[in-house]
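User: Predict the structure for this protein chain, please.
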Amino acid sequence: MADRVFAGAILVIALLYTYIAFTVIEAPFQYDPLGPESWPRILGIFAMACALYLVIRPDVAQLGTSTKTLGRLAVVVVLLFAYGYLFERLGFILSTWLFCATLAWMLGAAPLRAVLFGAAAGIVGFFVCTTLLELNLPVGLTAFLT
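Assistant: Here is the predicted structure, written as structure tokens:
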């Protein structure tokens, strides 16, 4: 029963999000083939389909989450908010480096490996996104690299 209630709440949120995506979001110009309006629309439709599936056919297993796991999930949510806050200020490379290194360390990586993974994710991700995908990413404190 709890699955259906949760899925119903998510379905309502997805419906509202999709309504906004189709009626409010308008970009002044198109810079990719699908346009910037398409991604929120696709996300909304996909979220509605997943929530509707859970309403119709919920999971039969009981959710038994430990306090430690809930605490780690809360830390990840805080990390995501921090990543969003620091994204433009520090730039893509540094904020991604910090986020990925912290997350890898939380998941059990040794500190040095976590730092190296974060560095690789930030640096390689930046150059893949800016060079291959031609996306504009904030450089922040790493402006000297470009």
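The two ends are 54 Å apart (CA to CA).
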